[in-house]
Amino acid sequence: MNDLKIPFEELKATLFRVLLKYGFTEERARQCAALFAKTDLDGVRSHGVNRFPLFLEFIKRGHVKPEKTPSIQSKISMFERWDGNYGPGNLNAKFAMERAISLAGEFGIGCVSLAHTNHWMRGGNFGWQAVEAGCIGVCFTNTKANMPAWGGSEPKLGNNPLVIGIPRAEYPVVLDMAMSLFAYGKMALYKNKGQDLPFEGGFDSAGSLTKNPSEIIENELALPMGLWKGAGFSLVLDMLAAILSGGDATHEVDKSGDEFGLSQVFLCFDPSKLELNEWMEAKAEEIINDLKSSSVFEGKEVRYPGEGVLRTRRINTEHGIPVDAEIWDKINKELES
Which of 99, 109, 205, 323 has a C-alpha 20 to 30 A away from that of 12? Predict the structure, then answer.
């Protein structure tokens, strides 16, 4: 992979100009471009600019509708149910987390479900959105079928990412993980480099575990993290997302072979409203300090989720964001057409 170093503002401005050509209003193009660019700024290359060409392709196919925004379907106290109307997934998710934060400010806890939306790209963006508002955030999404049930030989489950963000004065804790051992975007990075995965990450067509990302991607047989536990976790997240939103479940998403029309849930807890502030910071600090005091094997270190993000963000701000040259060329050609 041949990388260029692109300044954050240049990356964001280029994506913004492309999105304008695809029917976004200026404000929505600005927000959408910022979410993509921030993903790579934070070092999550599997879900940022590398996915931008596919995002544009989904707009062309009519799966992602740039002009569509969520519409409310139901509101009962701290719970709201919205229809995403197949709008851009990252913008819909940002909106839903904003609503959950607002509800938490009113009730202490807010829950927003979202049907008929699209891939949110980097789910961690919305965990960071919550912690930057001083809130605890939890969100999850279903996906198309890309993982087998434990013991199964075909994709029946989604890898259904889960995000949990916990604010701290120094460094927030932000967990962003799929139910598969490796996210498909991560496997694609290894595939493009011509490299095997560091661990067996899925099954080949004969049902044997493999490190070959091409075989796993082709078969859509990612290995559930925690084996049968990850498969069970995936199933219940799909059920919750579909039931709470009234939207499609994983087995209904994959009707065309493309991934769109997803279901998502966003939860937010306001520590101030819930009277947690007196001891929350001290308790979080105790937990992290205990974790960091762990003995380690030679050459290893113990890190908590999200620990390296702010450091990566600082480095990429100073030196430029690594972007694949081929992807960057493809994006810039969109401005020439």
Answer: 99
Spell out, as residue ranges, where the chain has pLDDT lower than 70. 1, 254, 256
Closest CA relative to residue 187, chosen from 142, 154, 226, 218: 218
User: Which of 153, 176, 179 lies closest to 250 in space, CA to CA?
Assistant: 179
Catalytic residue check, 47? yes
Cα 335 from Cα 216, distance rounded (Å):
34
12 phi/psi in degrees, rounded to 5: -60, -45
Burial annotation 29-61 (CB, 10 A radius, 16+ → b, else e): bbbbbbbbbbbbbbbbbbbbbbbbbebbebbee
- What does the pLDDT read at residue 70? 98
Are 71 and 85 in contact, with CB atoms under 8 Å apart? Answer: yes
Question: Tokens in use for 172?
Answer: 């927030």
Domains parsed from the chain with CATH numbers: 1-60+307-337 (1.10.1530.10), 70-180+224-306 (3.30.1370.60)
CA distances, 287 to each of 280, 283, 303 (Å): 11, 6, 12
The first and second tokens of residue 182, run together, are 């490796």
Tens digits of residue pLDDT in 197-222: 999 999 998 999 999 999 999 999 99
- What pLDDT, on the 0 to 100 scale, is given for residue 61? 95
Strands 109-117 and 262-269: antiparallel
Catalytic choice (47, 63, 116, 119): 47
**Separation of CA 206 from chain center:** 30
What phi and psi values does residue 224 have, to the nearest 5 degrees? -60, 135
pLDDT of the residue at 1: 59
Question: Token match 């219940």: residue?
Answer: 236
